[in-house]
Amino acid sequence: MLYVILAIVLSAILTFYRIVKGPCLPDRIVAMNSIGVMFLLVLVLLSYYFERKIFIDVALVYGVLLFINVLVMAKYLSRA
Amino acid sequence: MIDLIHTLRQIVAYVFFITGIYFLLSTAVGMIRFPDLYTRLHAGSKCLMAGGISVLMGCIVLEGSGFVSLKLIVILIFLLITNPIAIHVIASLSYQFNLIPKTNAKKNIDE
Known about the structure:
Pfam families (chain A): MrpF_PhaF (PF04066)
Order of helices and strands of chain B: HHHH
Strand content of chain A: under 5%
Oligomer: heterodimer
Structural class of chain B: mainly alpha
Low-confidence stretches of chain A: none
Subcellular location (chain A): Cell membrane
Number of strands of chain A: 0
Low-confidence stretches of chain B: none
Keywords (chain A): Cell membrane, Membrane, Transmembrane, Transmembrane helix, Transport
Family (chain A): Belongs to the CPA3 antiporters (TC 2.A.63) subunit F family.
Structural class of chain A: mainly alpha
Shape of chain B: elongated
Helix content of chain A: over 70%
Radius of gyration of chain B: 19 Å
Protein name (chain A): Monovalent cation/H+ antiporter complex subunit F
């Protein structure tokens, strides 16, 4: 289980390159959304790694807040 | 008999985990190497959801019946509903910024 977590974290680190070097701003927003979903999967797998099943609620709330972040950014940037 | 069922469940779960890792690394490579914004939107929507569905299905197979599996199904359905909405909103935002794609198809047809 630990190797699965390490592979997803490596994928998130490779995706972080697009945040550092993105030509425009929606590139960074897409990379942020991808890293957020990857860390949601890491939170679900850490619940299995520690054998403490109540941590799945943390992942559920994190998914709701991630979606609201993207909507607020788009609503703020689209209208003048 | 119970040990055989447990072993088979673990094998199926790790097959799901390996396919999920493959799709997530594909997302990372596409996010680095695609030349344009709209292709990156494509990589950030489809490959990411394939990896997420695979990893969550592996967790559901490891868990079995119970309330934890129901919570995992709720997370999966929520991701399936909300991530295409987020990608569509970002695409609409980048259309209002007048960001044209770098590779124009009409030029490729003319040449």
